[in-house]
Amino acid sequence: MRRAIYPGSFDPVTNGHLDVIERARKLFDEVIVAVAHNDQKQALFSLEDRLGFLRETLAGQANVQIAQFQGLLVDFAVAQKATAVIRGLRAVSDFEFEFQMALMNRKLEGSVEAIFLMPKEEYTYLSSRIVKEIARLGGETTKFVPSIVVRALQKKFAR
Ligand code: ADP
Question: What is the rounded average pLDDT of the residues 49-66?
């Protein structure tokens, strides 16, 4: 059983995240999409909302589980018997931080391997942060996020 964790804030989930999940599903028997519960990071959406968007969007995908985690990612990975952590790489700008995290995680826990997946080119410019900015300024987000998220963003930023 090859199990991978795909961790992140998913604040909110975007089509870029979904592209990475789709690729990961083909490589692993099971992918656990793990939403970080992080008090240090100010999120727009509550943990429950972020989990709900993922659950609704990924419902019916047999080998995808949705979970939340707190604390060290490698501890969660070991507890879940996962052998890999998936991260998305969009551009060189992602690389430095991801490289540092991957090597630090390896120091903390040698049994978990980091796997980097590149999304479709059209998603390389996409981030949760930029989608929130567009929504805040009254722009259209339908091309970037699933419909449940479009509606939630409209509600959040209703004027
Ligand atoms: P974090 O706060 O951990 O960076 P994110 O939800 O922003 O959480 O991202 C989770 C993972 O998904 C990260 O590895 C990030 O690089 C990746 N990711 C985010 N957006 C995209 C995208 N458009 N294409 C590919 N990977 C992405």
Answer: 96
